[in-house]
Amino acid sequence: MDYHNIINPLQICGFFLTKVASLCLEVLSTVLMKKTLRYLAGVAGPSGYGSNSTAEQVTEASTSWSHFPSQLTAIVTGATSGIGAETARVLAKRGVRIIIPARNLGKAGDVKDKILRESPKAEVIVLEIDLSSFTSIRRFCSEFISLNLPLNILINNAGVFSQKMEFSEEKIEMTFATNYLGHYLLTEMLMEKMIETAAESGIQGRIINVSSVIHSWVNKETFCFSKMLSPRSYNGTRAYSQSKLATILHAKELARQLKARNARVTINAVHPGIVKTGIVRAHKGFITDSIYFLASKLLKTVSQGASTTCYVALSPQVEGVSGKYFADCNETSCSAMANDEREARRLWRHTRLLIHMQLRHQ
């Protein structure tokens, strides 16, 4: 018998699977190429804005908020530089009272002075905080509450990236402690004030968690709560991406809880993009110049980087939207793990238990 003429069903399956995989890769490649071209061209999405839109451009339409009887108040963490400082500047320009929590009061004072030079009528208040310290966060919240101000907007923007393993005063890995746990506690301690403000003013409260597309690099095996608190081996990029995934899961679960309470407060996560900080050309030549040129087109200016945060904070188009993920001023998809409701609830429970145990010992 000529076995070469017998068609093996497994071979048929293998052939078709190979073809399907090849087709999927082609489709994926085409989709990514289209997305990249749209990004480079700054093509506007459904919101009317795109990757090239600036924070000032996307908040021009927010003047419709000015008819409300009370001034909006926003807390912006990480506002001493970069995207946070630009977010504070633009919101202040639109008439929002700005609270800057900062570890470095000198840098915060410089940002305040810069805002007031541009917008002399702006109200900017600087308060001390260390987001890696639960004690400091509690102190900041007490100081803010004592000011008897409303709270309409909370922007959890601050973030750290460390190449070496460091620990907070609570003995928690610093990146996770600052980027996620600190903002979790800050949000929890200010939540009732936000709900109260929304009920009294009739203005929907908004919380924005600044995340990153790098959250999609995390897989389920490495996303272990106890290991993130105190990793046996440390990788800065992994720690940063884990903290950014946690911020999205936080937004997803808190959005569910707020909806269940019928609270007039929303929470969303945003990816600001990769911001241009200056590219150093060490070598000259056509190839290297071309690479640097292409790379510069993929990066954003600080104002473009702050645009999505400002859009979600002020745009009337985002009214009532909660538990979503935004990039380039448009709602978009996040990773499958970031959409996992069970993972979000599990992370919430672990975090709440940890923080309450820590606070009991303080």
TrEMBL record:
One of the Pfam families matching this protein, by short name: adh_short
SUPFAM superfamilies: NAD(P)-binding Rossmann-fold domains
Matching CDD domains: retinol-DH_like_SDR_c_like (cd05327)
Coiled coil stretches, renumbered: none
InterPro entries: NAD(P)-bd_dom_sf, SDR_fam, TIC32
Protein family per UniProt: Belongs to the short-chain dehydrogenases/reductases (SDR) family.
Name of protein: Short-chain dehydrogenase TIC 32, chloroplastic-like
Species, as recorded: Trapa incisa
